[in-house]
UniProtKB/TrEMBL annotation:
Pathway: Lipid metabolism; Phospholipid metabolism; CDP-diacylglycerol biosynthesis; CDP-diacylglycerol from sn-glycerol 3-phosphate: step 3/3. One of its GO terms (molecular function) is nucleotidyltransferase activity. It is found in: Cell membrane. Its main location: membrane. The keyword Cell wall biogenesis/degradation does not apply. This is Phosphatidate cytidylyltransferase. Its EC number is 2.7.7.41. Belongs to the CDS family. The chain crosses the membrane at residues 20-52, 88-105, 110-129, 135-155, 176-194, 245-264. It is an enzyme of class 2 (transferase). InterPro entries: PC_trans. Keywords: Cell membrane, Lipid biosynthesis, Lipid metabolism, Membrane, Nucleotidyltransferase, Phospholipid biosynthesis, Phospholipid metabolism, Transferase, Transmembrane, Transmembrane helix. It catalyses: a 1,2-diacyl-sn-glycero-3-phosphate + CTP + H(+) = a CDP-1,2-diacyl-sn-glycerol + diphosphate.
């Protein structure tokens, strides 16, 4: 913004090497699963969702790890079982883990219920997009989220300026937020040119970018309430899986809503 000076502190880049290395490893594993699809993508998503349920529990009740592991195993069992059924009533199984976990935990029950439910539904959305709409849609979804995160991070660090929502996420700036939108728009332009989606996908990419940022902010607010820095320490430079995939979950929930409300066509190169 006019009148603001770029941040020049060299220390702000200290975590970039570790962050990029972890990102590269996750991208490699994720890319293989996305390309292969089928059971490989299902295994990755179910594993990630189960771990995030465990992380949600551990942020609320860090002194009780065993129930968290039981809930993670229950999550994997429920989602795996849902893949073998097509009845609409099977969706009620999304409530099993949130209800059981809310009963078991001694405090913050509403938070556990809401976040556990949302993570499961978002994970199911990713499985649905890959299976029903194919590789191109899921590639676009992930590309928008990654572009938003990477360019939002870089622009925010270089340009700096006013904070987006300092009480919830003190590191996020308006410049980084706008940088993420711009990068998502570019991704949309690329997919509009290479696929039969049409240029409406450019606007949808920007809105999806904002949805991914909201997912990140919601998780930041939850961590602030729980007074923790990261959801866990599983990934060097990133914290936990929930820290890494919060934006993807927000985007998935948004696209699941769009796909449910409108007749979303297939998109192909």
């Amino acid at each position: 913004m006019a009148g603001s000076e770029p941040q020049t502190d060299p220390g702000k880049w200290d975590d970039l090497t570790v962050r990029m290395a972890s990102s590269a490893a996750m991208v490699a594993v994720g890319a293989v699963a996305v390309v292969l699809g089928g059971v490989w993508f299902q295994i990755l998503v179910i594993f990630a969702v189960a771990v995030m349920i465990w992380e949600i529990w551990m942020m609320i009740a860090p002194d009780l790890p065993t129930p968290g592991m039981i809930l993670a195993a229950l999550t994997a069992s429920v989602l795996s079982g849902m893949l073998t059924h097509e009845s609409a009533f099977i969706l009620l199984l999304f409530l099993v883990v949130p209800i059981v976990g809310a009963y078991m935990v001694k405090h913050e029950r509403l938070y556990f219920f809401c976040f556990a439910f949302g993570v499961q539904v978002a994970g199911w959305g990713l499985l649905t997009f890959r299976a029903d709409y194919g590789f191109t849609w899921i590639l676009w979804l992930i590309s928008v989220v990654v572009a938003t995160d990477v360019f939002g991070y870089l622009v925010g660090r270089v340009v700096g300026g006013p904070k987006f929502w300092p009480k919830v996420s003190p590191k996020k700036t308006w410049s980084g937020t706008a940088g993420g939108w711009a990068a998502a728009g570019v991704v949309g332009v690329v997919f509009a040119m290479l696929t039969n989606a049409g240029f409406i996908i450019v606007a949808l990419s920007v809105v999806l970018s904002f949805a991914s940022q909201l997912g990140d902010i919601m998780e930041s607010a939850f961590k602030r309430r729980m007074r923790v820095k990261d959801s866990s320490t599983l990934i060097p430079g990133h914290g936990g899986l929930f820290d890494r995939f919060d934006a993807l979950l927000g985007a998935s929930l948004f696209m699941l809503l769009i796909a449910s409300a409108f007749n979303v066509p297939g998109v192909n190169f």
